């Protein structure tokens, strides 16, 4: 289950950025910045957080495997 969640955490930023038609517009603006730009910039900290979460999940999964306890 942890590995599946880690895969989702790593795949979400790709899906959010590669689906261009979902954010290829000007409105709403944020401090005068068109949506197209601030949406992409928002993904930078989100992707970093999701990558860190995936790392934590995979480390816990590896630790559980090495201890020999059932998942």
From TrEMBL:
Keywords: Membrane, Transmembrane, Transmembrane helix. InterPro entries: DUF3311. It comes from the Bacteria. The keyword Membrane applies. The chain crosses the membrane at residues 40-58. This is DUF3311 domain-containing protein. It comes from Streptomyces roseoviridis.
């Amino acid at each position: 289950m942890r590995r599946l969640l880690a895969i989702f955490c790593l795949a979400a930023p790709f899906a959010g950025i590669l689906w261009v038609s979902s954010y290829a517009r000007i409105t709403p603006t944020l401090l005068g910045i068109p949506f197209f730009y601030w949406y992409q910039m928002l993904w930078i900290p989100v992707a970093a957080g999701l990558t860190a979460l995936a790392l934590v999940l995979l480390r816990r999964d590896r630790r559980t495997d090495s201890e020999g306890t059932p998942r």
